[in-house]
Structure formats: structure tokens, C-alpha cells
Amino acid sequence: MPMRKSTVFLVYLFSNIILLTVLGLHSLYQREAASPWLEEKREMVRRLDLTDLCLFTEASYTRHLTQADGHVAFQDHPVSLEHFPSGSLLRPPSMMDRTHVRLDR
Amino acid sequence: MSGWIDKQKNILDFTFSSILRRKGKNIALLLVYTLIVFLLASVMFLTYSIKEEASTILKDSPDMIVQKISAGRHDPIPLSYMEKIKEIRGISSVKGRLWGYYYDPITGANYTFMVPEKFPHEPGEIEIGQGVSRVRATFPGDALDFRTWDGKVINLEVKKVFSAESELVSSDLILISEEDFRLLFGGSGDRVTDLVLRVRNPKEIPTIAVKIAELLPDTRIILREEILRTYDAVFSWRGGILILILAGAVLAFIILSWDKASGLSQEERKEIGILKAIGWETSDVILMKFWEGMAISLSAFLAGIILAYIHVFFASSSLFEPVLKGWAVLYPQFKLVPFIDASQVVALFFLTVVPYTVATLIPSWRAATVDPDSVMRA
Lengths: 105, 378
Known about the structure:
The structure holds two protein chains of two kinds. Chain A is 49% helix and 0% strand. Chain A is mostly helical. The longest helix of chain A has 29 residues, at 5-33. Chain A is elongated. The termini of chain A are far apart. By secondary structure, chain B is of the alpha+beta class. Chain B has two domains: 2-57 and 234-377, no CATH class; 61-232, Barwin-like endoglucanases (Beta Barrel), CATH 2.40.40. Chain B is 54% helix and 18% strand. In chain B, strand 4 and strand 5 form a beta hairpin. The interface between A and B is large, with 64 and 88 residues.
């Protein structure tokens, strides 16, 4: 006898909820498992006095987002134009708040 | 209780028969809906994980960085500034950092050179990040050529490659001895790139920053708090392309809900009329439409969230890679730790499932309260 449509839907729903729970547990497990690696990165930051994450290497001001000076691309002003793709993903460093008028707020 | 469950199952059976009668339209709807949730959830997972990881890792970055500014740009800072800063009470250590960028014409990649305080190797030797190792196909024991500031070529031997797990901070990094750094970039020995400070009492950081700014007016001071704040807001929803993704997804979702809320098709109205005529209560019709809305929105929400998790944490956000990569040749291949903000997932649920279900109910309720005869004749 073919399964009722409602049963198929409920099975789909519960299997998704179970899968979501498994992913939630995976997230918790991974966080636990990653703690030595997080500690390794923290130690590296401490030892080398690093200030930034290596997310984008195409331009100096997106590589060291917090260290950029005020005279490259969008840093002439927090809302001026940008010409590197990654610059269009990021916001200007918070330090710029101190030195520029907050026109974009 | 079992009677109630049976009723729901019967209505669900009928709902699915009704959905399958308009198979093409509903499958397309489900796919678009899933795609919207997938896109929103992927951006949410990616940005939240990066922010969380940044705040964990960068907690130990220097308390303060002092950079010399000359004609509005960052300039090497004289070591004599260090002596002046040391005189300020409350500072536990001041160190000079030597670092800089190197554009590699062979690969087109940019590297970050840095001199560590204690370099465990001899001059002529370096440690490199995974990204550098990848783009130059270089491993411990191999040598790399670099062009110095005066056009000469120096050959440096790779002693170590940093672990793949540390790529998020070290992918483009090259650690080098001070001697080789000066040979590569030139400059006088009495200047460093910038100064890093550690302060005994964190509460004194703002006061010390003001004192340094008064003592050395041609410098700028970057506080750790600002570093952390920068990464906390790094992918703000208002930032560049993110607002475009968000706006596109929200508009698509508004169109979907609007289509539902603006009224039922002739066929659907007729169906409701027939159901009413054969004895269905208005509440039964509304229940059927509730299940229809729930079946589509909940299925799309669950599938979208699961696919987004797999995309971001198992497939390293490969669909976003062209955007994240930009024009970079050296692209760090980091695996993010899956930090999930449950409140964001709940917010996404209430933003997607609830409005759609409500939008499905309203026109059905309107059609179900009209005389079945007139609905069928219309």
C-alpha cells in the first residue's frame, strides 16, 4: 500500500528536524574540537603581535583592515568610492569614526 | 487526541493533493523559497562565524599600536619615540614591529613580511604560511627568490610552513630575520614600521592614549578595542554587497508573499467553493490553507538552513568564493568554526515562515466566508 501523502510529509519534516539537530550537535562538537586550533591562532596573535585576520590579500587596506591609513581608496572618506572587490564587502575600520565626520550613520 | 491527529492528517492529505494539482507552480515556488532562505542563512552563518572567530583570536592582539603619520600617510617610526613612550607610567612593554608588503611579480600575489621578536632560525631562512606555500608550490627545504629594494635578488630557504588550521591569520605571512628584512626593504636601522604597547591596567588605556597623542602629535594610536570593534562590524548588513544580497532576497520574498496575499486564482476559489458546498467548515478551509502555507514555507526553511550550513561549514562557502576572492591571487583556504547564533536562526524563521503562512491565510479566509454558490459561479 502506498504511503499517505501526509505521512510522507511528516517523515520529511521530522528527518529535516533530526538533521538540523545533528548539525547543531556538529556545531557544538566542532567548536570543542577546534579549541586547540583557536588557541594556536591566539598564541600566534600574541607572539607576533598580529592585528588582523587574513581574509583578503588583494589590497593592503583589506589585508590589514585595522591598520590602513587614510589615503587609499575608500579611506579618503568612509563613504567614498572603492575599487577593489573585497573593499565593497567591508566597512571602514572603526578608528575612522574618530577622525571623520559620521556622514553614513 | 488521536481524532484530532487523524483530522489533521486527512486535511494534510487533501492539501497535498491540492498542491500537486498545481505541481509546476508549487515546485518552482518551493525552489525559489529554499534559495532565498539558503542565501540569507549562508550570509548569516559566514559573517557570524568570522566575527566570533575574530573576537576570540584577536583578544590577545596588542593593547595599543602607535604609528607615525607623515603627510597623512603611515611612515616608519623612529626608535627614539619608543624611549619617550617608555617614560609614560602604566606601560608594561613597548616593542617595535617590522612588517611590510611584498608584491610577487611571478605569481601576482601579495605577501606580508614580518620580523618576529624571537626568530628561531638563521638569516637567509624563513617561515611561510600555507597560502604562500600553495601559490609558489614551496615546501620546507625549498628556496624562494625575492627582489630587494635596490633590484638585487636574495634567496631565502623555507624552514617551516605554518599549519593549515592557522591560515586565517597566517596564510600570506612570511617570517624573516631582521637582517634579511632590512636587506629586502631597505630603510634605516633606527626606524621600525610601528610600535606595539602592552599596558598594565586596561582601564588606563584611554588615558595613556591621550598622553601619547599629546607627547607625539605626529602619531596615530589604534586601540585593541577598535580592532575588535572593526571586526565586529566587518560584514555589517549595510556593508556594500551584503545589502544587495539582502535586498534582493527580501524583495523576492516580498513578491512571493504579495502574490499569495493579493488573492487566490480562479481555480483555488472554485476549490474552496466546492469544499464549502460539500460541507466543509470555514475553519477547515482555513486549516487546509494553513497547512498549505506551512508545508511550503517550513519545507523551504528547513532545506534552506541545512543546505546553508553544509555550504558554509563543509564546502567552505564555495558559492561565495568568486566574490570573497576578488582579484586576490593568494586566497586563504580556511575552514570556519561553526559558531551559530540561535537567535539569528529564530529571527530568520519568523521573517520567512510566519509572514508567508499568514499571507496564505488571509485571501483564503476571505474566499471561505463568501457564499459558495457565488464563488463557484464567479
